[in-house]
Design brief:
Helix content: over 70%
Number of strands: 0
Strand content: under 5%
Radius of gyration: 21 Å
Order of helices and strands: HHHHHHHHHHHHHHHH
Shape: globular
Number of helices: 16
Length: about 450
């Protein structure tokens, strides 16, 4: 199978499962918004900066490093070394993720009351911490499969995770309400844990279908150390990038409610607007990105393989086609959200505010969808430092919007800050790719 066919096939599989998963998640969010209201959704969203930071610290860098390293090993015919890479990555991420679980549980009171500013988050943080070890197993196996350009296990595990999460929350809700007990948003966090548990179990038990020897322990500790060293060379800068970026994202996320209060809103109103923005409007905008996310996942290992073969003409051809498709998709989605945004907000969420946010956010679609491909290409070229700098510039612009524009213009100031940041990321990414290809 050619690289082009492999990208198309993998993208198709991931896109179909991505749309199914997001379709399920869409109605799940509608259910949560109806049951717990805008303030409950805002409270639920508050814990995700902590979740994202822990994932960035323990998992995200290793997953990307596994994918790229396995792709290069496969291109060079080193199949056994590719398997050893996964073993080393699994052991290392499990250790880091367990440490994150312990740290979050021990400091849940401080994180909830001081950093997030709401004591109600403490219990949710403790529950959330149990997801990290399961995420480690799931993510490492998915990274290995992406490196092999095999998408069945990641695609199905995504559906397993989403199905288990939604069903468990529905079961908890109906069981508790039938027994006359109070139900709060923490059952949604329980659903996250159960979803990751099922996804990790499925991915682990399906690994023999990809490589029968993957469960055998690495025979020599020296070999394990070598493979871990290879991973760390790539994953340490990636992890540092992700951690710093997620720290900036966390500052951005937890500051929005406070800056909205500085504008003119009460605490409850600010949390409600935050919930509408992050729990309703942004998921709508991101829904079509299932396609571009799938393309980006398949693109990075392919770029790494082509770079190893030093085939610059093929590299240019793939980059032009993929980025063009992503931009055109973004334009169509932009027009669709501009026309139907108010209807989506009222029909799906019963929120006029959500419709207004969707219309404003529609303008970021062409750049947002193309940027995912741009950054994947840069990572595939091994220029992870460039992605860090580009993402940092974009986030600093957004943070400036939070602290500078929201107190003056309200939430619209933040939305326009998002648009400017995506424009900046597109421009810087294009310059970086052109420079690296020219060199």
């Amino acid at each position: 199978m050619s690289k082009k066919q492999s990208i198309i096939r993998g993208t198709f599989i991931l896109t179909i499962t991505g749309f199914l998963s997001r379709f399920m998640g869409f109605f799940y969010r509608i259910f949560l918004s109806r049951v717990f209201g805008e303030e409950g959704i805002g409270l639920y969203q508050l814990i995700f900066p902590v979740y994202a930071l822990c994932i960035a610290l323990s998992i995200a860098g290793i997953e990307t490093a596994i994918s790229r390293t396995v792709a290069r090993k496969r291109a060079l015919g080193l199949e056994q070394e590719a398997k050893e890479i996964l073993s080393a990555g699994l052991l290392f991420t499990l250790l880091l993720s367990c440490l994150c679980t312990i740290i979050v549980q021990k400091n849940a009171f401080f994180i909830a009351n001081v950093l997030l500013g709401d004591a109600r988050c403490q219990t949710m943080l403790i529950i959330l911490s149990y997801t990290f070890p399961f995420c480690a197993v799931h993510s490492c196996i998915c990274g290995y499969c992406y490196g092999l350009r095999e998408t069945k296990i990641p695609a199905v595990s995504q559906l397993v995770e989403q199905t288990a999460r939604i069903l468990s929350v529905y079961i908890f809700f109906f069981f508790l309400t039938r027994n006359g007990q109070e139900v709060d948003i923490s059952i949604a966090v329980c659903g996250l844990v159960i979803g990751e548990l099922f996804a990790a179990a499925y991915a682990f038990q399906m690994m023999p279908a990809v490589t029968p020897t993957i469960r055998h322990p690495v025979k020599a500790l020296h070999t394990l150390g070598q493979r871990l060293g290879e991973l760390l060379q790539l994953s340490v800068p990636l992890t540092a990038n992700r951690v710093l970026i997620n720290l900036l994202q966390s500052i951005e996320a937890v500051s929005i409610p406070g800056r909205l209060e500085a504008y003119r809103y009460t605490t409850a109103e600010a949390l409600s607007i935050y919930g509408v923005l992050n729990g309703m409007a942004l998921p709508c905008i991101l829904f079509p990105s299932a396609i571009t996310s799938s393309v980006s996942i398949m693109l990075m290992p392919t770029i790494a393989e082509i770079q190893a073969a030093e085939n610059v003409p093929e590299l240019l051809k793939i980059i032009k086609k993929v980025c063009g498709i992503c931009f055109i998709l973004g334009l169509f989605c932009c027009f669709g959200f501009l026309i139907f945004g108010p209807w989506i907000g009222m029909t799906l969420f019963g929120s006029q505010t959500a419709g207004k946010f969707i219309v404003t956010l529609a303008w970021i679609c062409p750049f947002l969808y193309t940027n995912s491909a741009f950054l994947s290409i840069i990572n595939g070229l091994g220029k992870t430092g460039s992605t860090f700098l580009i993402n940092t510039v974009g986030l600093l612009i957004r943070i400036a919007g939070v602290f500078g524009a929201i107190p003056v213009l309200g939430v619209q100031g933040y939305l326009w800050g998002l648009l400017i940041s995506q424009l900046a990321v597109s421009l810087l990414s294009g310059i970086s790719i052109f420079k690296n290809l020219r060199d």
